[in-house]
Amino acid sequence: MTNIVLFGPPGAGKGTQADLLKEKYNLVHISTGDVFRFNIKNKTELGLLAKSYMDHGNLVPDEVTINMLKAEVEKNTDANGFIFDGFPRTTSQAEALDAFLSEKGETINAMIALEVPEDTLVERLLERGKTSGRPDDQDESKIRNRFNEYNTKTSILKDFYAKQNKYFGANGVGSINDITNRISTIIDTL
Q1: Residue positions in the annotated binding site?
Q2: Domains of the chain
Q3: Which positions are annotated as active-site residues?
Q4: Which residues bind AMP (predicted)?
Q5: Which stretches of 30-175 are DSSP H helices?
């Protein structure tokens, strides 16, 4: 199995790239955002709880996120591997993911981080907010708060994966095709 953590701040293009990479490498894409939206739309207990955090531009607590993601992995027991998009976001989530995969005889092969300047991300998210209907994409102060959360809580994951020689940075600016090619070059060397 090939298990990739696709990493980057909100608006970096993780979802777009994951959709292309899942086809190319026949992997299952597990997007934390999509899982949250499914649970929110269906008004599950976990979905309503997640929504209360997201509406204020905050990250959802580990336990809620981990339980949702475990359920998604269990739905795809015959997968060739997974692209985790938006998860893990903290060291404790990364450790929980490692423990969960280890129980299945699997591991994360690489964390690939899309690197994009913050001002570019703000422009992308405000533009996405015009059509997404997501309140957290329509308010620049909420967007900047998400970056603050990302920078203080999740950027430490670079160190977590770098210590395991599994961290790879990829320039997330340019055409979608160029970015996909940069990521593919990394995956092809694993």
Answers
A1: 11-16, 32, 37, 58-60, 86-89, 93, 128, 134, 146, 174
A2: 2-188 (3.40.50.300)
A3: 14, 89, 128, 134, 146
A4: 32, 37, 58-60, 86-89, 93, 134, 146
A5: 32-41, 45-54, 62-74, 91-103, 118-132, 140-149, 157-162
